[in-house]
Amino acid sequence: MKVLGHTQTETAGAALANAVRLLRRPPGAVVALLGGELKPGRLLDHGSPFLQQALEDSVFAHLVAARHLLPLLSESALAAHYLVIGGPAAELPWAGYGHASIASAALRMFSRALREETQGGPVRVQQLSVCAPLRTRQRGHAACPDWPEPNELGLQVVDLLSAPGLEPVVRFERRPARQRTGPTPDPLSETTP
Hints:
Number of domains: 1
Radius of gyration: 17 Å
Protein name: Short-chain dehydrogenase
InterPro entries: NAD(P)-bd_dom_sf
Oligomer: single chain
Largest sheet: 5 strands, mixed
């Protein structure tokens, strides 16, 4: 069953949680992938609303999602997992996309703080940090060879949910083609403490 909703406001987050609760079956996992298309622009060329919007679209929307969906996960009889998916630019600034770098770094710290605050509880919180933009149809013409395909990200998410590790942040990087041949490589081998 599909439940539609968003987490741009507290009211919308509560409505989403209520819609999930009406399914009468607590979810075993939440995969929180929020955000939209990156808009280019230097920080110094835009006013503060430009950065504020980037933070609202990523960090604040994730906060609303966590506030309303984590309690649902804690109702599950099985071990539950809350996985935050963050985009690239958290480690190094992207020229012309400074607002995205700041929002990505803030999301990483949000995930770590959320994990600390929920430690010892019934829900494991982790972040999957995607280290390059996804190779989509819209970006295919400009994609670099190391940009992962969306299905590769999906497989990484499934692997992480089926065998959650202890790391608060797990890095997902596409491996060079020569390393992807033969048996499927261990998707969790690249981690950060």
